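Box S1 | Example of a co-folding query
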Amino acid sequence: MTSTTPRGRWDSCATKASSAPLRPFATNWTLRSKAPSDDLEPHNEWPPPPPEDESALERALRLEAEEKARKQSEEIDAAIDQDKTELERRRRQKKVLLLGQSQSGKSTLLKSFQLLYAPRAFRAEAEAWRAVIYLNLVHSVNILLDVVDAANLRTSKTIRHLQISLSPLRQVRTALTNTLSTENARARLSVEDLDVEVWRARRASGISVHSSAWRSLAKVSGPGNASQDDIENARSVIGACRNDIAAIWSNKDVRECLSNQAIELDSQAVYFLDEAQRISAADYCPTDDDILRARLETVGVEEHSIVFENVDRGQEWIWYDIEGTRSSRAAWVPYFDDVHIVMFVCSIANFDDELDELSGNNFMECLRLWKSICENKLLANTTFFLFLNKWDLLEKKLKSGTFFGAYVPEFGHRSNDWQSVANFYREKYLTIHRDFSPQSRLLQVHITCAIDTIAMRGILEQARHEILTVSIDRMTLL
Ligand SMILES: Nc1nc2c(ncn2[C@@H]2O[C@H](COP(=O)(O)OP(=O)(O)OP(=O)(O)O)[C@@H](O)[C@H]2O)c(=O)[nH]1
Ligand SMILES: [Mg+2]
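Box S1 (continued) | Returned holo structure for guanosine-5'-triphosphate
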């Protein structure tokens, strides 16, 4: 008869089954049976039958050992289940990389996607967007104040009154920027601060705030919290300035100044000034449209997990939203390795932005960027989506008298309407994709207005469907 105690037997079995590490309940477990007829016969039952001559102490020790083994086994089972779930989650996970120039609409596209497929998560962040929306509004008012200062309109009594009454909004802008920013982003904003020449040279915009900082605002609350105090202070100052904000925005001298100084406010600045009365009300809550319009320059790379709440419930897509400035592009490459989908966003409305002498206008710059993405070997097997975005602003620009052909001679004498221009873009981008891709690859092209939630619903649903279910035949093959 074996002289091992029950505990000793368990230890030896655990050692024997070491290929299924430390797993007492594993089905390939082999125990030596105590049957007298065949002492070496294996059997798979656990726990094994107790020895016939077991003492009370041995029994207590055996039961204790068995209980310990059972717990350990359950823990291993749970860990294996967790690993399987995690593996399955990762298998079903899609990784999406958003690429494109700054201000092309990458973050807005992501917001539209989240609004459509994870509306509860989208709306749960509404409170955090409040500070960003206040910042957008006061930033726009400050641009008007800067313009008025530069034009020296002090002769007008109304303007003088507005300059004084709205001056607290300068401190509000600084406080909100500090609340929302990292040091890095703050430095960038201060460079742009108060410089009318900068506004004149390019469109008036540029709110640069690191999102990882501001998103945490949704979670902090309560009196005494510095961030919340700043937001509450902003709310009350903006509320007190409510009528004067409307007054400066509708003032015809101010409008004239803007046009004399060739300052073109961005569409989101116009939106927030138009909506100032509603936003400055004491009971204001950010709407979906406000959130989509809010401008917050992406700094660095942001990773967003979107878990589908309705269709494909539980499925997770990881989005990498990347800063679009020219200087940041080297930082994109590490993300090329591991993504399933590239969504390239191109604004078709700012073809006339002049860059430096070497780069020419923005139309050429964006084509070059698209070419460099197409020919990148790391992305050879990735599915591509191209969003030719901001057709609404393109239409407005062309209707106001800008001739596309003046900036892109190759356009020739085609009709100067947004559809012809958008189709021209489409052809150019398809040709580059065909000529420079390392191998055949799927590409789907959409002409979009990322802030139009109804139109985006159809487009994003089509994109999601193509990614997940539809055969490759329906995609545009090279
Ligand atoms: N009118 C209009 N505005 C748009 C459209 N798409 C985006 N916007 C606005 O354009 C601004 C810039 O969009 P973002 O999504 O922040 O641009 P981005 O590409 O993420 O820019 P970076 O973060 O600087 O790289 C935001 O205020 C958006 O609301 C569009 O199709 N039409
Ligand atoms: Mg962005």
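Residues 83 and 89 are 10 Å apart (CA to CA). The chain has 21 helices and eight strands.
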